[in-house]
Design goal:
This protein has 319 residues and is mostly helical. It has three domains: 1-127, Serine Threonine Protein Phosphatase 5, Tetratricopeptide repeat (Alpha Horseshoe), CATH 1.25.40.10; 128-207, Serine Threonine Protein Phosphatase 5, Tetratricopeptide repeat; 209-319, Alpha Horseshoe (Serine Threonine Protein Phosphatase 5, Tetratricopeptide repeat). It is built from 16 helices and no strands. The chain starts with 5 loop residues before the first helix and ends with a helix.
């Protein structure tokens, strides 16, 4: 029997680990799992805890990306245990961060906060600004899920400061949106609008149509809540233009509904009818009976408001 060369086994395990990471980063999750599990088995055979911890960390991250949060917790906990046993502080931070995120999605917010707070301490001990920024952001999201908006805002603002300090515009954009959402939930619509405006600017500079669409919708809703209907309409119309440009029929239907509501709030029922009629047409194209019924109901109310009772009756009979 030919003896196994530990050096060649280690090289094979390292190669499989890298292939797992590469596959994960390109979104090939099933392939990534296969490579990571193979590397894990070899590291265990070699009794290499460092390699084993890395493979477990990868598996936790992959299952998190797959939204299999229970498995993500299992692998991340094993990653954390090994890191603590070997004094691997960076690995401990990775495990704590992954656990905090997974528990947040499992709606165990107390555990999410506990692990994220420990992750924050480790990041600061390491002097790792990027990890600190991520931990603060995750804490903000966990507190928001608990409806503790004041704590959420406090952590998100600290995270934003670091994102700007290290020049990470992608994360800065995410945090600006999170802050806008938190202030909106708190009912502080002026602050929400301010953060959404900043997020919109970054999205437009980066030509990110998807995010631009989301933020235009958020700004429209925010100015509607503020009673600034003209600005709400302006943002909703910009969102509508993008929806039509990228042929997003569902987005178009939703925004036409919002526009109808704002026109009604302005007392401009003619424009409201126009928006609702367009929404009805899109709903029929989508073959969505629920939205079709909603549109007919909105049209009936708006037609009554302008005294067009015959048209209102027509829409009533179409329901």
């Amino acid at each position: 029997m030919v003896p196994v060369n530990p050096g060649s086994l280690k090289a094979e395990a390292d190669k499989l680990l890298k292939q797992g990471v590469d596959s994960y980063q390109t979104g090939q999750y099933e392939v990534a799992i296969k490579f990571s599990q193979q590397s894990l088995a070899l590291y265990q055979k070699l009794q290499d805890p460092q390699g084993e911890g890395q493979a477990l960390g990868n598996l936790g991250a992959i299952h998190y990306a797959l939204k299999d949060y229970t498995k993500a917790v299992d692998y991340s906990q094993r990653r954390l245990d090994i890191a603590r046993d070997t004094g691997d502080l960076r690995g401990e931070g990775q495990g704590l961060g992954n656990l905090g995120n997974a528990y947040r999605h499992l709606k165990d917010h107390d555990k999410a906060i506990t692990y994220s707070q420990r992750n924050l301490l480790v990041a600061r001990e390491l002097g790792d600004k990027r990890a600190e920024m991520a931990a603060l952001n995750n804490l903000g999201l966990a507190y928001k899920a608990l409806k503790d908006y004041v704590s959420a805002i406090d952590h998100e603002r600290q995270s934003l400061e670091i994102a700007r300090e290290i020049g990470d515009q992608q994360v800065e954009g995410q945090i600006l949106k999170n802050l806008g959402n938190a202030y909106y939930a708190l009912g502080d619509y002026l602050q929400a609008a301010d953060y959404y405006e900043q997020r919109l600017k970054l999205a437009q500079e980066g030509k990110d149509r998807r995010v631009e669409s989301q933020i235009l919708k958020s700004l429209g809703s925010t100015y509607h809540a503020l009673g600034d209907y003209r600005r709400a309409i302006s943002y909703f119309q910009q969102r509508l233009e993008i929806a039509r440009l990228i042929k997003d029929a569902r987005g178009e239907e939703q925004i036409l509904g919002y526009l109808g509501v704002v026109y009604e709030a302005l007392g401009d029922y003619e424009k409201a009818v126009e928006a609702y009629e367009q929404r009805l047409m899109v709903a029929r194209q989508l073959k969505d009976p629920q939205v079709e019924r909603q549109s007919l109901g909105s049209l009936q109310v708006a037609c009554y408001a302008i005294g067009n009772y015959a048209k209102a009756m027509e829409y009533s009979l179409s329901k």
